[in-house]
Amino acid sequence: MGTQNWLYDTILYMYALSLLFYFSDFIDANRRAKRIGTGLLIFVWVLQTVFILVRVVDHFGLTSISAFEYWLGFSWLLVTISLVISRFFKIEFVVFLVNLVGFAVLALNMYSTPGAEGGYALPATMRELLIVHISLILCAYVALTIGSIFAGMYLFLHKQLKSKRWSKVVRRFPSLDTIERFSDRAIIIGVPLLALSLSVAVTVLIVENQWELLLDWKVLSSFAVLVIYIVYVIQRAMLNRPGTQLARLHLAAFIVLILNLSTNFLSTFH
Fold first, then answer.
1. 216 — phi, psi (to 5°)?
2. How far apart are CA 18 and CA 35, in angstroms?
3. Domains, the chain, ranges and CATH?
4. Residues 45-75: pLDDT tens digits?
5. If DSSP codes are grouped into helix, strand and coil, which group holds residue 120?
6. C-beta neighbour count of 5 within 10 angstroms
7. Dihedral of CA 233/193/107/112: which sign?
């Protein structure tokens, strides 16, 4: 445990240092700082991967996943996808913004207790299905988080262009069409994954004969989130709403998702 604590602290310090270099590039288009930040971020990814593998080996026989492991996986996925975006798409500022979220999650996760009670229980008969559920919903959350960042970028850039504020930062933004395209891709990935994960969760409850939990706050609010995102998809695909309206709806849906995640204490099994 002492080794793991030391490794986790190292990850946080390296992550913070990486973000400082990215921030320097954000403020003053410092390409050298960006390269250093990227190198440090790759190092963070390696350390996170090692940390996760160590925990998997140490806790291989456990039948539960705590919130600590859950959010650790979320942060790791954000770092992974941000590096893919950096390598293949070259979209300015997205890596910095995505990893601000990843760092915040990792820092807050220090207050979780690894392996504590109240984690995500995995009954022996349903272990595989629940692992699929957790994997799907983690990927959905990551996709929807990145999509909301693009939506926020869209609103910011639209406002700056409408006001004709041609700052150095604005000139480095991708076009509105590019931002909108990547926001849509995140939704296309995230919404089906969210629907699949909820379907698996409902299947587990039914098979385990826990029908009463279908009326649990967590289940109902999760389906409410899914409905809001489906409304967004309908507005986007069929009603041709303006980009600003869609971006606001996207952010509203994400806020409801955050509320859903932050009210686990109202649930009887999450």
1. -65, 150
2. 10
3. 1-120 (1.20.120), 122-270 (no CATH)
4. 999 999 888 887 776 555 556 778 888 889 9
5. strand
6. 11
7. positive
| pTM summary value | 0.85
Instruction: Answer yes or no: is pLDDT of 128 > 60.
Output: yes
CA 166, 167, 168, 173 torsion-angle sign? negative
d(CA 228, CA 78): 23
**pLDDT for residue 45:** 95
pLDDT tens digits for 179-229? Answer: 999 998 999 999 999 999 888 888 877 776 766 667 777 788 888 889 999
Q: Which of 93, 158, 136, 116 is nearest to 226 (CA)?
A: 136
CA 54 to each of CA 58, 127, 157, 176, 256: distance values in angstroms, whole numbers, following the listed order:
6, 21, 42, 42, 34
CA distances from 90 to 2, 83, 86, 172 (A): 39, 10, 5, 11
